What we know:
Layout: E1 3-10, H1 16-25, E2 30-34, H2 40-45, H3 47-57, H4 66-90, E3 93-104, E4 107-112, E5 117-127, E6 131-133, E7 146-147, H5 149-153, E8 161-165, H6 169-180, E9 184-188, H7 200-212, E10 216-218, E11 222-229, E12 232-239, E13 242-248, E14 250-253, E15 257-259, H8 266-269, E16 292-294, H9 305-319, E17 332-334, E18 339-344, H10 347-352, E19 357-363, H11 368-372, E20 379-385, E21 391-398, H12 401-414, H13 418-422, H14 433-443
Parallel strand pairs: 1-2, 1-5, 2-3, 5-16, 7-14, 8-9, 8-14, 9-10
Antiparallel strand pairs: 3-4, 4-5, 6-15, 11-12, 12-13, 17-18, 18-21, 19-20, 20-21
Amino acid sequence: MAIKTDVLIIGGGPGGYVAAIKAGQLGKRVLLVDRDKLGGECLNYGCIPSKALIAAADDPRRRLDWREVVAWKDQMVGGFVKNVGVLVKGNKGEHIRGAALFTTARTAVVAKTDGSAETVEFEHAIIATGSEAVSVPGFAIDGADILGSKEALDLKTPPEALAVVGGGVIGLEIGTFFAKLGTKVTVVEFTDALLPVIEKDLVAPVSRHLSKLGVEVLLSSKAKSWARNGKRLELAVETPEGVKKIACDKILMAVGRAPRSKGLGLEKIGVELDKRGHVVVDTEMLSSVDNIYAIGDVVGQPYLAHKASREAVLAAQSLAGLPLEPRGQVPWAVFTDPEISWVGMTDAEAKAAGFATIVGKFPFAASGRAMAVRETDGFCKVVADKATHRILGAGFVGADASNLIGEACLAVSIGATLEQAARTIHPHPTLTETFAEACEGALGHPVHMLRVTREAPVFS
């Protein structure tokens, strides 16, 4: 006999499980199907474990038993996974471990991990299958020599030397914490800049710190091949100066991710995909099939957990018949050293959109709190519309940048002005003051920094 439910959700990550909770709260019967652990890539193999290991690498004691650190990380993640299950069940949702395949727009077959199968009949479905690491010809991830982020986070001992292919977020986050543990790290980046999608002034402090950690960075370079050389590996890299061979113990592939949309039967039921395999959706997260929704990485960039969670709420509200809400701006945070965060438009994006802009910056070096905790490398940056002073975007690079971005998220979301942010009293001494100071700077009257004016030269 078929299982009947109001909503079938495929994928139990930060999109899927949040959709299950929210739909349950809105009175819907929910069946959540995932082939792996609840919490998805983010909780089990990405965001949470990586931040735990980054924190451990920053521990001033530093003489930590790495096996114990990994065991602690695994225990912590296991607790979160259990709690996700409790939340889903507590909101009247059911969970099956297995792989779902659509047979029609209202039925699916679930191949359970115990070898049995179930037919599911549903009114609505939400696809929340996420993304997976991109494979590169000649560099297939084997978990032994060639690692993805998942395998790198499970290493029981830090390698003596690590080659990181890809100078984006994942490569730099993982490469940085291994460098802090004493690993010799080499980063190979195909483009001419690290973190190429981020503004260069925000990346500059990160580049400086990588150099201090002894990380070698090869820009405009391409990993060509690898081979075993005795007990070690040898990576051949094509650089602007010619081929360079790098001796290492492990190679981390961090060149990007792709949506998991294959093997679900989407083409059979008429769900439209773009050329990269993303499910095409509208502002309600509804696909080309009028009862099939999709959220998170599987619908496109940015591949971020909090984006998926917000889209989960929108999909659940839509299928419950509630009024449409805007998704809002998606902030991002990079847990390098120092951290980087941003929300809204960059100065270049704002100008491309037709805005005349004003920009304010406030350096951490002028912050009493930053001086007190010896974290002075960094700044806050604010971009605003010159005509209305509405804040279009803002960000931080420096200590605690990921925790500082919340106020800017609210400011951009509600269309706050520079004046409103500047006159909001911030506690002293804190790094949050840098946001108000940057707004003051954009208005032309900074308080704790001399205003720099560039007058036209006078010729005699």
